TrEMBL record:
UniProt-recorded name of the protein: Aldolase
Pfam families: DHDPS (PF00701)
A GO molecular-function annotation: 4-hydroxy-tetrahydrodipicolinate synthase activity
Organism taxonomic ancestry: Eukaryota, Fungi, Dikarya, Ascomycota, Pezizomycotina
Family matches, as InterPro entries: Aldolase_TIM, DapA-like
Organism, scientific name: Aspergillus ellipticus CBS 707.79
């Protein structure tokens, strides 16, 4: 490591983190179902997720009210505490298009029990999102010291606004900016950042599990992956295989997980359909509309019984069913920290 900055006072542990889907009631307004969410949170914690991400992209954050965001955080905290994990890591999406909005979201997340905030760059006016504007934005939110900040790089939902490793490295020097989620999929950023910073200085996470091993081989800290909604034990197993130096087995499992990740990358609807199909019955959530996206966005046609257009999701993910079902409940490092 080349940076001499001190370790940050609060960082996300290394490991596997699940950006949790939102579950809704079967009502015209699709109110958030907090009872169903509680059951699902506990399933993920027992399944080995090292922490949960609430109000992120996979949670349809832009469709949630401020109250719903906070209540989901409170519900997740209660789910963890009821399992005996008082200090279980919770990350909250706090992305706004202005510093003012992001500061408000950060305050609300902190007050509801979040440990860290996940923050996209401003992107509504993409041409105005210059390097200087992005640096000022992150620094202003981080300077408030409301909550430690994780930089969220996802050009696909940010009008193509990308952040170079040089820009991220500059922000990593800030004492309240503690890591990054790279949904941009750029493995080069991982190696450039980990060359400069240790995990304690600045954690670097893949934004998907289909390149978890490339991230870990570049000395990255883990991943934040939607696949963990469906197969948390399997993704946790991949992590443990790599960390125990069982590289051949890890590479084989990585290939299977990469196929499942392909389905999740198609959008929210396939991810929620797969979660309903594979996880719903196991946790007592068998009402299909609980897993539909919030209107106006549409569920998969297979989930509504109108066709088989999402049959390929089942074909891909069936490869992991036997593995997931063969694994015992595990406790991730986030829970072990209690």
């Amino acid at each position: 490591m080349t940076s001499s900055i001190p370790a940050k006072s609060k960082v996300l542990p290394p490991g596997i983190f699940c950006p949790v889907i939102s579950l809704y009631k079967d009502t015209p307004r699709q109110e958030v179902d907090y009872d169903a969410s509680y059951k699902f949170f506990q399933h993920l914690i027992r399944g080995g997720a090292d922490g949960l991400v609430l109000a992120g992209t996979t949670a349809e954050a832009v469709l949630l009210s401020p109250f719903e965001r906070q209540e989901l955080l409170r519900t997740a905290r209660r789910a963890a505490v009821d399992l005996g994990f008082d200090n279980y890591p919770l990350v909250a999406g706090i992305s706004g298009q202005s510093a003012n909005e992001s500061l408000r979201l950060a305050e609300e997340a902190r007050d509801a029990g979040a440990d860290l905030g996940l923050l996209l760059p401003p992107c509504y006016w993409a041409k105005a999102a210059t390097k200087e504007a992005i640096l000022d934005f992150y620094r202003e939110v981080a300077d408030s010291k409301i909550i430690p900040i994780i930089i969220y790089s996802f050009p696909g939902i940010c009008n193509g606004v990308d952040m170079s490793s040089d820009l991220i490295s500059t922000l990593a020097e800030h004492p309240n900016i503690v890591g990054t989620k790279l949904t941009c999929g750029n493995a080069g950023k991982v190696t450039r950042l980990t060359k400069e910073y240790s995990h304690g200085q600045f954690g670097v996470y893949a934004g998907a599990s289909d390149w978890l091993i490339p991230c870990l081989s570049g000395d990255g800290s883990g991943c934040i992956t939607g696949v963990a909604n469906v197969f948390p034990k399997t993704v946790a197993k991949l992590w443990s295989l790599w960390k125990s130096e069982q590289y051949r087995e890890a590479i084989k499992l990585q290939g299977l997980i990469a196929q499942a990740e392909r389905a999740c990358k198609e959008g929210i609807a396939p991810t929620k359909f797969a979660t309903a199909y594979y996880v719903g019955p196991a946790v007592g959530l068998t009402n299909a509309p609980a897993f539909w996206p919030r209107k106006p966005y549409q569920p998969s046609s297979k989930a509504t019984g109108e066709g088989l257009q999402l049959g390929w999701v089942v074909d891909v993910m069936d490869l992991l069913v036997e593995i997931e079902n063969s694994l015992p409940d595990v406790v991730g490092s986030g829970a072990k920290g209690n």
